[in-house]
Design a protein that fits this description.
By secondary structure, the chain is of the alpha/beta class. It has 2 domains: 136 residues, 3-Layer(aba) Sandwich (Rossmann fold); 178 residues, Dihydrodipicolinate Reductase, domain 2, CATH 3.30.360. The protein has 11 helices and 15 strands. A 7-stranded mixed β-sheet has the order 12-11-7-10-9-8-15. The radius of gyration is 20 Å and the shape is globular. Bound molecules: nicotinamide-adenine-dinucleotide. The site of nicotinamide-adenine-dinucleotide has 27 residues, from helix 4.
């Protein structure tokens, strides 16, 4: 059994202790949050230790940690833990600052730790099928793609207290930019981006409303769209569609509508049943797989997928989007 700790116990972060507590190869040893009440409550739920002090974790004998603090607050806990030689599973985005991401990548390189970023869409069976098809050459060479991942405005307005320090680009592009880079197996070279601000700013959330970014990869160009102003009446909190054209074929994926809808007080597409076991008592959703995979990698000594280097490449793409937005010109992307 691997002893594991979790830093950051918010809306999403609480999935990590739940999975480590449930998995037969891990033992949830400690949870940490700046909010003492939250740390104590989660620790009571899972009968583990708690702290508000990251340095205590660095000096502990616990070898592995999840970091699920807000987007802009990954660097401090992640660097402290990496410097202490701990294995870390860090939430996306790796950081919201390219130089911080580079420092984490250097620290990960210097240590022997098995560190990874939680790009959980790589465990989504549909995305895995798409990657298999592209790798098998079923659509020939990837030529052009489109992917949109947006959120209902309630995510920016009321889910995240730190929304103004992030944005749809830091919160949602990490998923789509990682998945398309992974699917086509190519590196991004250049981006041209355009965006809009004002709707969220008028509501006190000072960030981008929406961004469109055309990224040129080796042989393929992909348009990435993201927005945080989708009406709350949308049938799903997220809005995700993908098309990929190859030289001999095409793949389309509508990630929101799985062929099932419910209409009661609202017309809705059901979202993942996060935070609850299935009727057979198992935590089986693919979004929980990266936590178990991380434990397996550490215990079995297998270098993980979704490395800190992948996280750095991801941040480099988003950083280039922001540079292009600032200058109105294409921006080069350097993923190393
Ligand atoms: N993989 C995914 O699909 C997915 C989904 C949602 C969110 N996320 C990511 O997970 C991270 C957390 O999101 P969330 O929704 O749980 O946020 P949240 O705001 O609900 O919770 C963040 C928690 O971190 C705590 N915190 C802040 N700084 C800290 C520090 N230095 N040390 C310890 N605790 C600290 C806060 O007190 C808070 O309890 C974000 O990076 C987010 O983008 C990932």
């Amino acid at each position: 059994m691997l002893k594991v700790g979790v830093v950051g116990l918010g809306l999403w972060g609480q999935n990590h202790p739940m999975v480590y507590d449930d998995y037969h190869r891990s033992e949830l040893s400690v949870v940490c949050d700046l909010d003492e009440e939250k740390a104590r409550t989660v620790a009571e739920k899972y009968r583990c230790d708690w702290t508000t002090d990251i340095t205590e974790l660095a000096h502990s004998d616990i070898p592995a940690f999840s970091v699920a603090t807000p987007d802009h607050a990954h660097f401090a806990p992640a660097s402290t833990l990496l410097e202490a030689g701990k294995h870390i599973l860090i939430e996306k985005p790796l950081t919201t600052d390219l130089s911080e991401a580079q420092k984490l990548a250097e620290l990960a390189d210097r240590s022997n730790s098995m560190s990874m970023v939680d790009f959980h869409q790589r465990w989504n069976p549909q995305w895995a099928m798409i990657k298999d098809s592209v790798e098998a050459g079923e659509i020939g060479e990837s030529v052009m793609g489109y992917i949109r991942l947006s959120d209902a405005i309630e995510v920016a307005e009321s889910w995240l207290s730190w929304a103004g320090k992030s944005g749809p680009h830091w919160f949602l592009f990490p998923h789509t930019m990682d998945i398309m880079r992974w699917v086509i197996g190519q590196e991004p070279r250049r981006v041209f981006a355009s965006g809009h601000r004002g709707v969220l700013a008028a509501k006190g959330v000072d960030t981008w409303d929406c961004i469109q970014a055309i990224v040129e990869f080796d042989t393929c160009r992909i348009t990435f769209e993201t927005s945080w102003i989708v009406p709350n009446a949308n049938p799903s909190v997220t809005d995700c569609h993908m098309t990929l054209y190859g030289s001999t074929g095409k793949i389309e994926y509508d990630q929101d509508f799985a062929g099932i809808s419910f209409t009661t007080d609202k017309h809705r597409y059901p979202w993942v049943p996060l935070g609850k076991k299935d009727r057979y008592g198992r935590l089986d959703h693919f979004m929980y797989a990266p936590m178990r995979y991380f434990v397996d990698c550490v215990l079995d000594g297998v270098p993980p997928q979704c490395t800190i280097a992948d996280g750095l490449a991801n941040v480099a793409m988003i950083d280039a989007v922001l540079r292009s937005l600032e200058t109105g010109q294409p921006a080069d992307i350097s993923v190393t």
